[in-house]
Amino acid sequence: MFVKVIANLNLNLKYIERILNLGTFHKQIVTYRNYPEFRLKNEGSNDPKDKKFGIMRGLKTAKREEEKQEQKEEISTLNFLFKFNCELTKGHTVTSVDWNSINPDLLAASYGECELSPDSPGYLMFWTLKNPNYPERIIKTPSRVMSCKFSKTMPNLIATGWYNGVVAIYDIRVSGDRPIADSRTHPKKHLDIVWEVQWTPRGSGNDKAENIISISSDGRVVEWFMKKGLECQGIIS
Predict the structure, then answer these.
(1) At the fourth CATH level, which superfamily is domain 87-236?
(2) What is the reported pTM?
(3) Range in 60-64, 134-138, 166-170, 211-215 the model is least confident about
(4) CA-angle at 33, arms to 30 and 38, nearest 5°
(5) Domain locations in the chain?
């Protein structure tokens, strides 16, 4: 009972934190989503008619401003919007990032160092625009994570490639740091850094299943099949 209460409390605190951050990053989110900004002319009035006309005037003003902006010939610039970092990311290199295909606010980032130095633990972190100040979830891995990629047809799955040659698949619906499948004990696993992982369609027609293609410094390109664990066949070896 006590554990359930604590879990509910943590969840409610997360929602409160999201709400506060949505207010803090309101302008950035509006710019990122390309929403028109407008202000109500009668914000202090309690008359519903005044509020209605205020909204209409605000929309017309926003439309005029947008039209003026389109007419201006300006040099394109890059505007800084969001920065995703926390104490745990300090001293770690971002090795890859990928957006979730279903949840456009969800960003996965893998952390490790690209230097050829002794291996060390890594991180897979999931960030959201609802709270850029701290990741929604953190997965700690025994080896540096060098690549990550969400599945397109099963967006709850994410494939990762590690510094020590391991390919690991996580289900973000499952709690904990343990992958649902990995190649650690596979006799044909990569022997060097896995620099890239990609999901590729398997079969045709209504078959939406995917396999994983991995590329490693050992000179091999391998296709992985999710069955009972991971099975593979070499494409280039």
Answers:
(1) YVTN repeat-like/Quinoprotein amine dehydrogenase (2.130.10.10)
(2) 0.74
(3) 60-64
(4) 40
(5) 2-71, 87-236
